[in-house]
Specification:
Layout lengths: L19 H30 L9 H70 L2 H6 L15 H11 L2
Helix pairs in contact: 1-2, 2-4
Length: 164
Amino acid sequence: MIEKNVFPQVEDDFFKAGNIGLKIREIILAVIGWIIFLLPFMWLLITLYTPFNWQDLHFFQFKTEIDTFHILSWFLGVSFVLILLHHVIMSIRVNHFVDSMSNDKDSETKYRIEIRNKRFDDIFEERFGNKDFRHNVKFFNVDSDKNFDKNYLFNNLRSEGKTK
């Protein structure tokens, strides 16, 4: 019997074969987003490290740009570390939760499958003979009174599956 995953698989069209238009669009949007994010830093670095005329230097403006650069660097550095730490902790918690839920569901599902398989074997043995006979015989004629009603298996298995 094939076991199915308890949780559905998440599929993303970006990683499927084909979808070239979607991939190009998302890559372009990601590059534009990074450029928008890095543009203020590039602007500050350009003003700090470009050659300039020392006589035209207004010292307080230069100091303000350096202070702004340092404040932004510290703020974004600390923010990055905090966000990274938060994401790692939450990923660990979510993975632990999914594993525990998956194990609980798998054991419950396996238990129900075992009960239903046992009930199937009992029903088939009662109607059609033991398992060795059924698997080794090449031709078997079933009497019409031994055939199942339309909902016979469903009703019997449903009542068996609820007991735990």
